[in-house]
Amino acid sequence: MKISGILQPAAGDGKMKVMRYLLIFSVIANFFLLIFLIPSLRIKLRFIAMNSLGFPAPGSIPQFKNDILLTEYNPVPVLKTEDARKTRMPSMDVIETHGHIGGSFSGSPSEISKAMTELKIKKFINLSFTTGDDFKKLKSQFNDPRIIHFSTFNWKRIKESKDFVPAMLNDLKQDIANGTKGIKLWKNFGLNIRKENGERLTLDDALLEPLFLECEKAKLVISIHTADPPAFFGKADEKNERYEELLRHPEWSFNTSEFPKFEEVTKERERLFKKYPRITFVSLHFAEFSHDLEQAAKLLDSNKNVYLDIAARIDELGRQPYKTKEFLAKYQDRVFFGTDGPPDRGKFEIYSRFLETNDEYFDYFPLHKPRKGFWKIYGLGLKKEILEKIYFKNAEKVFR
Ligand SMILES: [Zn+2]
User: Fold this and answer.
1) How many angstroms does the Cα of residue 141 sit away from the middle of ligand 1?
2) Which residues surround ligand 1, an ion (CB under 5 A)?
3) For the chain, which residues make up each domain, given as ranges?
4) Per-residue model confidence as pLDDT tens digits over 79-92
5) Cα(255) to centroid of ligand 1, in Å?
6) What are the tens digits of pLDDT across the range 251-294?
7) 94-398 belongs to which homologous superfamily?
8) How far apart are CA 41 and CA 34, in angstroms?
9) What's the 347 CA to ligand 1 centre distance in angstroms?
């Protein structure tokens, strides 16, 4: 029977044949694998093949730099662009509403004061992560009257007792007595601060009411950073615009089951804003809606107590300049200038170029700061009245 003959070949002869086919197959497979793995070889073979088919090509094989890592890829545009400004700084004095100083990363008090003068920063809101004695120390260390210090909630108390809110409230009262002007809440609130039973502490958790009511009573502004760009909540795969950045900072990925979804936290935040209409909230980093200005508009329309800052989000805003310009015209009383960090000339140059000029296709980050996605931004060319509001007038009203 023929079929069984194939399936069960006579020992010896048939077996040798199969072995030979396997060997030929493995040689061919390895050959293609080698070509696939060595780009220079792949390019060479492709070049020879195309050449032999008659496609015009230079005489010698062009040289390619091989194996460029995605993190190294940094193309220089051939587009002729220029900085249209006479001066590279903001055209007026500014209020930095999203500053960070203190600790080892920002510079000494005298360096900070000098930089503030040079960069024409008339007020600097320091969104500090300190509370208690650390806050007191920070405040006395950086005592330039232009600096307004914010403290934070003392989350460490959660580990000390089941009933942690009274202790946190005491700390808050102490910070108020020590002169805090506002509260900075970081993204860990909402993402991974957990109660002792392991449950995530939601932004609108009723437990925290005494703290927020105290803030309301003391008229503290709350600057709150909630979630992060949605790309950090998505899969880190070939479709993720921030893939290269996530490679460098895997700790920024929230795409695991321990973290809530982006929408979940932003909804909690909305409930928090509604729950305390008499508290002024600054929803930092453009409320993480810089990629979706309709959402940002909805948030501002339905919460009159909420403001936005542009800190570290000009990358998104600047790649949709028409829409952003329209947005800032409509919500010109609700947006602050902020750059997220100590006074930084490089950032001031870029932020002012973004706000003030019609320049096209430039980097949204200074050389000493990393990029976030492979794109460039466009200037908004805002008119003076709007610039004044964003640079300082809105902040003057809110951070009195
Ligand atoms: Zn910040």
Assistant:
1) 20
2) 340
3) 2-67, 94-398
4) 998 888 888 999 99
5) 22
6) 999 999 999 999 999 999 999 999 999 999 999 999 999 999 99
7) Metal-dependent hydrolases (3.20.20.140)
8) 8
9) 14
